[in-house]
Design goal:
The complex is a heterodimer of chains A (about 230) and B (about 100). Chain A has helices spanning about 5-35, 40-50, 55-65, 70-95, 100-110, 115-120, 125-155, 165-175, 185-200, 210-215. By secondary structure, chain A is mainly α. Chain A folds into two domains: about 5-180, no CATH class; about 180-229, no CATH class. In chain A, helix 1 packs parallel to helix 3, helix 2 packs antiparallel against helix 7 and helix 6 packs antiparallel against helix 7 (about 125-155). Chain B has a domain at about 1-30. Chain B has helices at about 5-20, 25-30, 30-55, 65-80, 85-100. The chains are: A mainly alpha (about 230), B mainly alpha (about 100). Chains A and B meet through helix 1, helix 2, helix 3, helix 4 and helix 5 of A and helix 1, helix 3, helix 4 and helix 5 of B.
Chain lengths: ~230, ~100
């Protein structure tokens, strides 16, 4: 990607942003419908997508709150644990994006798996910035529109898994990670991270295995600069 | 606690977590060794995310199903230098077809 011309990079980023946005947007319909089924009003579903804006946390929150208000502390704990990784993404994004002041608030709000993945997949800061903002905004707009649609008219499209949309997300994240796996250290970090997360998943609350896998980046401690750009 | 209070508190924590990462002073993150670590963070986190999304089921149990096959197909497509959209569509189609056939 580093050698690609700016218009070519731009087209590639637009394709990545839009396809990630569309796949995520389809899940917004599920989220809206599930939130209402869990006892939330349409407004409450909308506020979650507008203000929390991190899909995994939102699904966990409504899944648990469906058991009643007594489950509220557990719902808040689950959504918060699933949100920890966004704070870790931010440590790298703040360097890539170079934003100041109010821009940081906007960047923070759009810091999610999808925008981070597209940003770090790019070869230079200029393309990373375009990828982050375009993906973040595309997902934000589609996620909120489809949350509203799902809350109002229910789950018209059925289970997104029927269309393989869960697998589309896995394939997209794999493809976005791919250009970063050039060095042996990067591959080792990815493999250790993946194995740690899968091994911890049965015994730890959702969200924690992925955060624990972040420890794999300690493999970069001693290495020269191969992992970094 | 009302439902509204729970929603607003959970949203505030989620946003606060994101913002906290963006507010870490730049000079703490610019040291070369720290830069290597934060540069490696998304690699570890996204690989872990893909792995849990593709290989775990309810309760976090290890599962091999249509999603795992889709990731293998995606990796083969990437090795063959397929464009991004092709990789994503192949992943989705693989899982959709396997499920429609009742194979995974």
């Amino acid at each position: 990607m580093t050698a690609a011309s700016w218009p070519a990079s731009r087209r590639a980023i637009v394709r990545q942003s839009l396809s990630v946005g569309v796949a995520t947007g389809a899940y917004g319909i599920s989220f809206g419908a599930l939130a209402v089924a869990a006892g939330l009003s349409t407004w409450q579903a909308m506020v979650l997508s507008l203000l929390m804006f991190t899909g995994g946390s939102q699904f966990a929150f409504v899944g648990i709150i469906a058991n009643g208000l007594g489950a509220a502390p557990a719902a808040i704990a689950a959504s918060s644990m699933l949100g920890i990784r966004n704070g870790l993404y931010a440590l790298e994004l703040t360097h890539l994006l170079g934003v100041r002041g109010a821009g940081r608030v906007a960047a923070a709000h759009l810091t999610i798996d999808e925008s981070t993945a597209v940003a770090v997949a790019q070869g230079e800061k200029r393309t990373s910035r375009l990828g982050f903002w375009l993906t973040g905004l595309t997902v934000f707009v589609l996620w909120n529109l489809t949350t509203l649609a799902g809350a109002l008219i229910g789950n018209l499209i059925g289970d997104p898994r029927t269309y393989g949309l869960d697998a589309a997300a896995c394939a997209a994240f794999t493809a976005l990670l791919w250009p970063r796996l050039r060095s042996r250290d990067a591959v080792a970090i990815a493999v250790v991270g993946a194995v740690v997360a899968v091994v911890l998943s049965p015994t730890m609350p959702p969200g924690i295995p992925v955060v624990a896998a972040a420890g794999a980046c300690l493999l970069a401690w001693r290495s020269p600069k191969e992992v970094q750009r | 606690m009302s439902l509204w209070a729970a929603i607003l508190l959970a949203a505030a924590i989620a946003f606060g977590t994101k913002l906290a990462g963006h507010l870490v002073p730049a000079h703490l993150l610019e040291r070369p060794r720290v830069r290597r670590l934060t540069g490696a963070l998304p690699i570890a986190l996204l690989a872990a995310l893909v792995a849990t999304q593709a290989f775990t089921g309810p309760g976090g149990a290890f599962v091999l199903d249509a999603r795992a096959v889709a990731v293998v197909v995606a990796v083969v497509a990437l090795l063959l230098r397929a464009p991004f959209l092709v990789v994503v569509v192949l992943g989705a189609a693989t899982a959709a077809v396997l499920r429609a056939l009742g194979w995974a």
